[in-house]
Amino acid sequence: MIQLRNIERSYKAGVGQTWVLRRIQLDIREGEFITIMGPSGAGKSSLLNVLALLDDQWLGEYWFREQAVHTMNRKQRAEVAKQYTGMVFQSYHLLDDLTVAENIDLPLSYKNISRSERQAMVADTLDRFNIVGKKDLFPSQLSGGQQQLVGIARAVIHKPALLLADEPTGNLHSTQAKEIMELFRELNQQGTTIVQVTHSEANAAYGSRVIEVRDGWMTRDTANPDMEMTK
Ligand code: ADP
Ligand code: ADP
């Protein structure tokens, strides 16, 4: 599904620059469920932002389903992102002037789906995430955990081919976190490829492969021996 070749990313730091991704080589097959781990500041979010086609300041080659992302302009990358990806942001990134229902509906607005079907999908998703009562509220009226749920609902409502999740359960109770991981497993079994960043061993157990990033380098890439058997 994805090939990253020699991906490098740096940020300006004073007169110089600091490198946050170094010569990343990564192949992701359709249907994988990958966990990215590593210390804070290692480059995990930066790598996720590249994969999600949200960042266009990197060097190297990125192939997405045989398409050369590195030759695309910003608009073309955004189009691929809308068509194929869903992203759960660590700090939610909900749109403040849209209601919960409108935030969740957003990915559907990029697709060719009828109004009535969209309404049904939003209603289903609100129900599934147990936030029907919050649908007309704005993000600022929600707790952090509730905002996180809305962010996850928005990322999965269109059943993306590629789901990226940055600490998706960081603000949830352990029972909620488990429900979200069960949902991810279900999506994965239905064909969604997943890449999650997490510090949680419990969440990592759902993945089939672990990648470790340290100081911008990929320092480990192994099958997950602790993977929970599908129940
Ligand atoms: P992680 O997700 O592993 O905690 P990040 O990818 O968020 O790491 O960050 C990697 C490094 O890049 C950190 O040192 C961080 O401070 C730096 N960084 C991330 N985003 C920016 C930015 N927009 N501008 C400058 N430095 C950044
Ligand atoms: P998220 O992980 O959801 O993107 P964060 O709160 O980690 O949210 O980061 C918010 C934004 O700040 C991101 O766009 C990230 O690239 C940027 N950022 C992170 N670290 C730094 C840094 N050291 N300097 C400047 N910007 C940063």
Automatic annotation (TrEMBL):
<dbReference type="InterPro" id="IPR015854">
    <property type="entry name" value="ABC_transpr_LolD-like"/>
</dbReference>
<dbReference type="InterPro" id="IPR003439">
    <property type="entry name" value="ABC_transporter-like_ATP-bd"/>
</dbReference>
<feature type="domain" description="ABC transporter">
    <location>
        <begin position="2"/>
        <end position="231"/>
    </location>
</feature>
<dbReference type="GO" id="GO:0022857">
    <property type="term" value="F:transmembrane transporter activity"/>
</dbReference>
<dbReference type="InterPro" id="IPR003593">
    <property type="entry name" value="AAA+_ATPase"/>
</dbReference>
<keyword id="KW-0547">Nucleotide-binding</keyword>
<dbReference type="GO" id="GO:0098796">
    <property type="term" value="C:membrane protein complex"/>
</dbReference>
<dbReference type="GO" id="GO:0016887">
    <property type="term" value="F:ATP hydrolysis activity"/>
</dbReference>
<dbReference type="GO" id="GO:0005524">
    <property type="term" value="F:ATP binding"/>
</dbReference>
<keyword id="KW-0813">Transport</keyword>
<dbReference type="InterPro" id="IPR017871">
    <property type="entry name" value="ABC_transporter-like_CS"/>
</dbReference>
<protein>
    <submittedName>
        <fullName>ABC-type lipoprotein export system ATPase subunit</fullName>
    </submittedName>
</protein>
<keyword id="KW-0067">ATP-binding</keyword>
<keyword id="KW-0449">Lipoprotein</keyword>
<dbReference type="Pfam" id="PF00005">
    <property type="entry name" value="ABC_tran"/>
</dbReference>
<dbReference type="InterPro" id="IPR027417">
    <property type="entry name" value="P-loop_NTPase"/>
</dbReference>
<dbReference type="InterPro" id="IPR017911">
    <property type="entry name" value="MacB-like_ATP-bd"/>
</dbReference>
<dbReference type="GO" id="GO:0005886">
    <property type="term" value="C:plasma membrane"/>
</dbReference>
<comment type="similarity">
    <text>Belongs to the ABC transporter superfamily. Macrolide exporter (TC 3.A.1.122) family.</text>
</comment>
